[in-house]
Structure prediction request, 231 residues.
Amino acid sequence: MLTLDDLLIIQGDFRLSAEFSLPTGSAVAVLGPSGAGKSTLLSVIGGFFAPRSGRVLWQGNDITDVAPAKRPAAHLFQDNNLFPHMTAAQNIALGIKPNLRLSVEDKRAVQDAFEATGLSGLGDRSPSQLSGGQQSRVALARVLVQRHPLVLLDEPFSALGPAMRKEMTTLAREVGAKTGATMLMVSHDLADAQAFADHVVWVADGVAHAPRTWAQVEADPPTGYRDYVGH
Prediction:
């Protein structure tokens, strides 16, 4: 379980508080207006930005001061962070061992990730030889091989067209269900969020609200939600 315990984030004039827990294995959409602090919230959970006060807990253990690389979290960002001089297979293998010295078991994990993300036969291609959707699949496969129980996705598919975004958000959800990972995805697209998530964390007016189901949000929308979705 991920718990944000009396968390307070301050960045200049910006303030954001959070006090909630997420059940293990849940898929959560982080929604809210631009500038509300959605990406900042993920940065704090991932360890890239320190909160002013409060704690980040994973399975009851305080990880607030733990370095990003030592947290049980994998990250997927909008730019995919693929190395252009490496093949798709090498980019995925980096998720297991940065020195690329893979055991037989490691190589099998890379192959399994290729198959799970629909990339079979593309391992020798460089990122420049792949489409935008294929590059996103490589980045998702690298998350998959890391086998971290917490996955943070910060608008990872926003550069793709609507059809490809829907395909990738559905695939990300399937990957999370397969691995049992807890997944949080920042999105500005309601359809993407609905295809991905079973719970919503609404971020607005300095508060990241506790997760609720879509039905709960629609029945009792938080302030600003109706304007956000356009009805």
Summary: The first strand starts at residue 2 and ends at 11. The domain at 1-72+150-231 is CATH 3.40.50.300 (Rossmann fold).
